[in-house]
Design brief:
- It is a single chain.
- Strands 1-4-5-7-3-2-6 form a seven-stranded mixed sheet.
- Helices cover about 5% and strands about 35% of the residues.
- The chain has one domain.
- The protein is mainly β.
- The longest helix has 6 residues.
Length: about 100
């Protein structure tokens, strides 16, 4: 028996797959804030090109990271993120948050 490869159109696309200049929406809890207050976005989370369900936070891939627009009143807590956790969550830098 020969294994088959997953067709490309069936593969899960995540934030880390976005191309520079691409805009999309994702869930607000995809943003993580480390102990120093630096913001990151989880590259392993899915996104949509239209607001849908809980995917209401606007993101855009820039040259050096992600621009994120959160809803008014959104708050984040600083947490310790070990280097291992950062790697496991595929954290990517947020270069602008508004």
């Amino acid at each position: 028996m020969v294994n088959t490869q997953l067709p490309e159109h069936m593969a899960r696309i995540t934030i880390q797959d976005m191309i520079i200049g691409e805009a999309a929406f994702t869930v607000p809890w995809s943003v993580q804030v480390d102990q120093e207050g630096f913001c990151w976005i989880r590259g392993d989370y899915a996104f949509t090109h239209q607001r849908f369900g809980t995917s209401r936070m606007s993101i855009k891939r820039a040259n050096s990271g992600f621009e994120v627009e959160v809803s008014r009143g959104t708050q984040y807590e600083r947490v310790y993120l070990s280097p291992e956790a950062k790697a496991q969550m595929s954290l990517l830098p947020v270069v602008q948050i508004s």
